[in-house]
Specification:
disordered C terminus; 220 residues; OB fold (Dihydrolipoamide Acetyltransferase, E2P); globular; 62% strand; eleven-stranded mixed beta sheet; mainly beta; 11 strands; 2 helices
Length: 220
């Protein structure tokens, strides 16, 4: 997946099997959008169940049946959902291109590239088994002065590396999108929830010299 040379800040390529029925979500300026979920397998034989948003102009909804395998390129986007006076960050893979593929063509790619800015101080921690993790929230600029806020997780030496990163630092990230089930206690009740995040395989700092050089090249 050649993403380094692209002008985009947010690129996803993923394929998987549809495991949740396609339903109508919303309409924007007369354009309808539908949502469904796909299963993307990991090398560990586990799977990530990931949300997809697609325009009616890209594919016929009736083609998006349970069990169908799709290949998608797009972006990982976020939006705020206000319910019960609470603000919840919702993530979805926004489709720019989609195709139905045969089972033998499904190599289960799950790749993402982000170029954004750290908007909260990274939180470093260790699991009960001693594995090092760092939680990072990255803001990725989008057209029309919008931004997507993407939760990311770094592991091992990458986790240690992010400890000293400051809020506002410009970073590039390569990794995969994953789902994670967890439980949250609300009063006397325990709710089962799902979180979506980017598992980082590679991270780079964009320094000021690189920025200046890029601006000069783009203005030529």
């Amino acid at each position: 997946m050649q993403m380094e040379g692209t002008l985009e800040n947010n690129n996803v390529i993923i394929s998987g099997q549809i495991v949740e029925e396609c339903t109508f979500s919303h309409e924007v300026y007369g354009e309808g959008f539908f949502v469904f979920k796909i299963s993307s397998e990991r090398l560990s034989d586990n799977e990530d169940i990931l949300p997809i948003t697609v325009s009616e102009r890209l594919i016929d909804k009736d083609e998006l049946k349970l069990g169908t395998i799709v290949q998608i390129s797009g972006q990982l986007r976020s939006y705020n959902n206000y319910t019960n006076k609470k603000n919840k960050l919702i993530l979805t893979i926004f489709v720019r291109e989609i195709a139905i593929i045969a089972p033998e063509e499904n190599k289960n790619p799950n790749q993402i590239y982000l170029n954004g800015f750290i908007c909260k101080k990274p939180v470093y921690r260790k699991t009960p088994f001693g594995r090092e993790i760092s939680d990072i929230l990255v803001a990725v600029n989008r057209a029309y002065n919008k931004s997507d806020y993407i939760p990311c997780i770094a592991w091992g030496r990458n986790a240690r590396y992010t400890v000293n990163l400051e809020v506002g630092a410009n970073i590039k990230i390569w990794g995969r999108i994953q789902s994670r089930n967890y439980q949250k206690k609300i009063g006397d009740q325990i709710e089962n929830r799902v979180a979506y995040e980017v598992s980082i395989s590679k991270i780079e700092i964009v320094n000021k010299e690189d920025k200046e050089e890029t601006i000069q090249q783009e203005s030529l």
